[in-house]
């Protein structure tokens, strides 16, 4: 598409005529909605609407480690292999609700704290940062999902995200060169990435690799020769996983899935290669994921699930298409999935809460503005809390202040509206390069 700001013009050679299946009148209606709403609906946060249980969620997250570490915990046993990601979900969710200092104090992010329990029997627990480094696999150069586990791209990214939030990427224990080598050597000749030495290929790993290298400040520019990876090939492989419906799968020819779509859109955003997508066709497919309940599903004919509030909203945010869904109804669905007794958020109403859906539910509420837009009928306490909430970045899934501090780079799409040929861009995305999406789907 036509690029502006720091982005150079690039031919959209990968775009196809599949977008012609969307009626031009439908596109116009949606664009008119964007112009009229100036970006998004305002979710309700008071009156008869379900409230956001801030204190309960903070308690749920901050006490979760003690529950999972119990030798009799079933949940702890079955999630042992992905504990690194579980810690990332916990820390990031809490970081959106509390200041860095409060998170450190409650969770022991950079310093040891006592485990919950009777004072006489409570034990000192190593800091989360210390635990992260104990999961480093020196044989591969990556981080494992738990202590003693093999290095894997999924958990390497989670580890780096935790260190980024803790502002500990300069810790001398982090062997940047070894981690970069681990990531770069997993790129395959076709541009894809394996998750580890055993060779499984998935577009999730493409996102993990590009995000990890960006966080480490080692990602080459698209087309740059002699870099640690070939970014152009990485982007082309992701584009090869695009389907006739505009969506993306885990490998070429695989079914479109909202989770994979976030990974692919996020990867292309970091690679500054969003011109390789059919934006309108993909946005249409994602908009059709909204169910009667207001929630979003991951594939046609599936039930709504809170986690897709993140997978879909993040992709729509990057593409400038959040107004194509009802954020009011989505916000109401997420709030109904809260546990009003013990805190946490479940996949759908009346199910058991877990940290995975708690994080993505809170992140979804952040992306639609619910946690940040102050209503006239809200109490002073609600207003005060919302002023302190941190925003989530839809590309890197980190607090926006962390992304800004690290100077991370990416690309987003804006759709021209009105005489100034400029649409409203979410303030959390204004640090990124902007691809003008006006003519993207007319090639």
Chain-wise SSE layout:
Blueprint: E1 3-4, H1 24-37, H2 54-62, H3 64-69, H4 74-78, H5 83-97, H6 100-107, E2 113-114, E3 124-125, H7 128-134, E4 136-137, E5 142-143, H8 153-165, H9 176-184, H10 203-215, H11 231-240, H12 258-270, H13 279-287, H14 308-318, H15 327-336, H16 355-367, H17 380-388, H18 400-406, E6 411-414, E7 433-436
Parallel strand pairs: 6-7
Antiparallel strand pairs: 1-7, 2-3, 4-5
Helix pairs in contact: 2-5, 5-8, 5-16, 8-10, 10-12, 12-14, 14-16
Task: Provide a quick synopsis of the model.
With 443 residues, this protein is mainly alpha-helical. The protein has helices spanning 24-37, 54-62, 64-69, 74-78, 83-97, 100-107, 128-134, 153-165, 176-184, 203-215, 231-240, 258-270, 279-287, 308-318, 327-336, 355-367, 380-388, 400-406, and strands at 3-4, 113-114, 124-125, 136-137, 142-143, 411-414, 433-436. α10 runs parallel beside α12.
Briefly note the structural class of the backbone: mainly alpha
Q: Low-confidence spans: pLDDT under 50, at least 5 residues?
A: 1-46, 117-121, 418-423
Mean pLDDT: 86
**Care to count the β-strands?**
7
Helices, by number, come to 18
């Amino acid at each position: 598409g036509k690029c502006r700001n720091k982005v150079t013009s690039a031919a959209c050679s990968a775009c196809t005529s599949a977008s012609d299946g969307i009626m031009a009148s439908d596109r116009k209606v949606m664009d008119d909605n964007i112009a009229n709403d100036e970006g998004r609906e305002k979710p309700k946060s008071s009156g008869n609407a379900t409230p956001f249980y801030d204190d309960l969620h903070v308690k749920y997250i901050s006490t979760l480690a003690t529950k999972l570490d119990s030798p009799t915990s079933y949940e702890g046993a079955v999630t042992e292999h992905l504990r690194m990601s579980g810690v990332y979900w916990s820390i990031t969710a809490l970081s959106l609700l509390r200041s860095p200092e409060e998170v450190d104090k409650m969770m022991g992010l950079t310093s040891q704290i006592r485990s919950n329990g009777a004072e006489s029997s409570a034990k000192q627990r190593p800091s989360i940062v210390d635990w992260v480094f104990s999961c480093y696999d020196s044989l591969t150069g990556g981080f494992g999902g738990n202590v003693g586990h093999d290095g894997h791209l999924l958990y390497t990214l989670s580890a780096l995200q935790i260190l980024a939030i803790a502002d500990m990427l300069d810790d001398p224990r982090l062997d940047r060169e070894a981690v970069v080598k681990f990531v770069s050597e997993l790129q395959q000749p076709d541009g894809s990435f394996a998750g580890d030495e055993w060779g499984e290929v998935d577009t999730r790993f493409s996102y993990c690799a590009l995000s990890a290298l960006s966080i480490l400040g080692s990602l080459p520019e698209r087309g740059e020769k002699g870099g640690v990876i070939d970014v152009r090939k990485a982007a082309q492989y992701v584009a090869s996983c695009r389907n006739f419906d505009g969506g993306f799968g885990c490998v070429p020819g695989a079914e479109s899935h909202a989770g994979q779509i976030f990974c692919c859109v996020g990867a292309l955003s970091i690679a500054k290669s969003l011109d390789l997508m059919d934006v309108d066709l993909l946005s249409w497919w994602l908009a059709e994921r909204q169910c009667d309940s207001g929630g979003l599903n991951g594939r046609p004919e599936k039930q709504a699930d809170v986690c897709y509030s993140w997978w879909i909203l993040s992709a729509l945010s990057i593409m400038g298409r959040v107004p194509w869904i009802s954020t009011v109804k989505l916000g109401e669905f997420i709030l109904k999935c809260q546990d009003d007794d013990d805190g946490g958020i479940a996949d759908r109403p009346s199910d058991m809460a877990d940290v995975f859906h708690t994080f993505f539910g809170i992140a979804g509420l952040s992306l639609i503005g619910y946690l940040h837009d102050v209503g006239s009928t809200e109490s002073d306490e609600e207003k005060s809390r919302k002023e302190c909430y941190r925003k989530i970045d839809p590309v890197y899934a980190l607090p926006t202040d962390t992304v800004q501090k690290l100077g991370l780079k990416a690309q987003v799409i804006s759709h021209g509206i009105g005489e100034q040929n400029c649409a409203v861009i979410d303030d959390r995305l204004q640090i990124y390069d902007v691809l003008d999406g006006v003519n993207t789907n007319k090639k």
